[in-house]
Amino acid sequence: MAVGGPGDALVAAYREQAVEIALGPNGAFENGNIGTVTRRVPVDRVVSAVPPRQGNPRPPKEPRTPRVVGLLRKALQWQALLESGEAYNQAAIARREGITRAQVMQVLGLLRLAPDIQRHILSMPDAARRPAITERALRPIARLDAGDQAGVFTSFTATPRCVPRSGMSRRSRHRR
Asked: In this structure, is residue 142 part of a structural domain?
């Protein structure tokens, strides 16, 4: 933008912009160490102290089936393999899947959950965020009696991202 000035010469229109800055390391501004810088900026430009984001913004995350749903489905499939005799034991499943026997045991442990809890898990919708219910969080619930599981699971789902613990952790027990 240009404005006619004295002698009809074109002069760019500017405005003054004051920016406050902290002088010194983090937290120094709390002691009153604030300085002001004044700069001349063209009137038609918007100037920000924060640089604009470069590149394309991230696309939203695609909803995915929660991992615990897939693990419970896999446990049901493995149980069918064991019952039909296609897999001789859990070690055979581990070799077939390329995982450890401990992982097979943990996944098969989901089958100790009450049928209502299993149905709830299998009916979980796809989500873009990490679900509150994980296989690891369900392990202590699966160790309980079937009658106690429903109450603990209900309280667990009422407070998201809360892992129920039964006493001390495994590590603290071994350190004694």
From this structure: yes
